[in-house]
Write a structure and sequence with these properties.
36% strand, binds fe (ii) ion, alpha+beta, 182 residues
């Protein structure tokens, strides 16, 4: 279930509020310009290849491309026994920004997007069916947990794909580690 935990950046270990109502969550994250939508999941009938996933969501991807000018897309997936899970987690866990929007649609599994904006951290637990669009320049990080499991479609405007600029902030270490949907 999608949830949002709101922390004050000055005291990140003591959450100020936890929201579970999707409309309330969507309204809260809109403060940072973040877009959150709920898409109906397509029954993939056991097909798990990247090609099958992209084909199943092709109309939605086309809508997003038209809306945001995205020129490339792919599928990213993590499983609990992925040999590089610790290194990949660390790569996304430090606060960073992109010159591109960060666009993710969760096909299955979950992960925690943490948005640092206006003195607060919005820890958004995304689950299957969630589309999130972080505008370019948003300070954020992503925690997939020590036993990650998710499959997501990513869209990019830049041909280079995922390029991050790390801010050097260490706020991520002040939040509880992600352990799965709350
Ligand atoms: Fe990012």
């Amino acid at each position: 279930m999608t949830s949002l935990t709101i922390h004050e950046a000055s005291a990140p270990f003591a959450p100020r509020a936890v929201l579970h109502d999707f409309d309330a969550i969507r309204a809260a994250v809109a403060a940072s310009g973040t877009l959150l939508e709920r898409w109906p999941l397509v029954d993939l009938a056991g097909a798990v290849s990247d090609k099958a996933i992209l084909a199943a969501y092709a109309p939605r991807i086309a809508q997003l491309q038209a809306r945001g000018g995205y020129r490339s897309h792919d599928v990213v997936r993590m499983v609990p026994d992925h040999p590089a899970r610790a290194d990949l987690r660390a790569k996304f866990l430090a606060e960073h920004v992109h010159e591109d929007d960060e666009v993710r649609f969760f096909v299955e599994g979950s992960g925690l997007f943490c948005i640092h904006h206006a003195g607060q951290i919005h820890a958004l637990d995304c689950t299957a069916g969630d589309l999130i669009v972080l505008p370019a320049g948003t300070h954020h990080w992503f925690d997939s947990g020590a036993a990650p499991r998710f499959t997501a479609i990513r869209l990019f405007t830049s041909p280079e794909g995922w390029v991050a600029h790390y801010t050097g902030a260490t706020l991520a270490t002040g939040l509880p580690a992600y352990e799965g949907p709350r």
